[in-house]
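Below is a filled-in request sheet from our internal design queue. Each sheet records the structural input a requester submitted and the sequence that came back. We keep these sheets so that new team members can see what a complete request looks like end to end.

REQUESTER: design group, bay 2
PRIORITY: normal
MODE: inverse folding
CHAIN LENGTH: 216
BACKBONE (tokenized):
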């Protein structure tokens, strides 16, 4: 299996992480999250690496992670997300009260609704979808088991967690999501987060002040 290539980009008005993924020697790429006004940066990387964007995987429906998807969308690009965030994808104006004023938020047409435990095909290698509500109802993470990394959106950050005071947020659900869906990953798994630097499962189990591992 060819090595996984990851190009991280800090984009949009609140420094949201987006990740362009491909395998060495291949010509197709997947984008994890699409912050506002991301098209220029993403297209530059695609051109530099001689890649074509085939899919956009949205970790959740908050504006800072999905508002740029419409700029990149084309007939042949599959967009995936979780149906519990459908109203935010299809009626993003409902987020106006907690978005940056002036951000263009066009509806996003998700072409495939993912489910808990679903396995996506990333150019021949499996990627497990884990549903992790709490930050918002439809947050999902994408676990690349064979590459020992997981793209987690805003579920967890380095020594922090995603906000749970926005509409649809719930700390108790977030805590369960982290304990059952994140801390159950192999300890060495790299967590690529929606904001800030990456971390690992083992570091968060030991050092995250907001959520502790379950004790037997």
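RETURNED SEQUENCE:
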């Amino acid at each position: 299996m060819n090595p996984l290539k990851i190009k991280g980009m800090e984009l949009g008005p609140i420094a949201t992480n987006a990740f362009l993924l491909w395998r060495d020697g291949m010509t197709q790429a997947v984008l994890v999250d699409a912050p506002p006004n991301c098209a220029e940066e993403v297209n530059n990387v695609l051109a530099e690496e001689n890649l074509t964007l085939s899919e956009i995987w949205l970790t959740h429906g908050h504006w800072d992670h999905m508002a740029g998807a419409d700029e990149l969308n084309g007939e042949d690009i599959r967009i995936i997300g979780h149906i519990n965030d459908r109203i935010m994808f299809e009626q993003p104006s409902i987020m106006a009260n907690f978005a940056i004023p002036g951000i263009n938020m066009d509806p996003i047409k998700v072409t495939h609704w993912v489910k808990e435990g679903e396995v996506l095909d990333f150019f021949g290698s499996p990627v497990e979808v884990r549903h992790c509500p709490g930050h918002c109802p439809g947050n999902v993470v994408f676990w690349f088991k064979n590459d020992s990394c997981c793209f987690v959106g805003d579920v967890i950050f380095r020594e922090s967690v995603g906000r749970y005071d926005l509409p649809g947020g719930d700390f108790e659900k977030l805590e369960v999501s982290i304990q059952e869906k994140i801390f159950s990953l192999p300890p060495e798994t790299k967590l690529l987060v929606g904001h800030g630097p990456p971390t690992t499962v083992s570091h968060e189990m030991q050092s995250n002040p907001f959520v502790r591992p379950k004790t037997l």
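SHEET NOTES:
- The mean pLDDT is 96.
- The chain has one domain: 4-207.
FILED BY: M.R.
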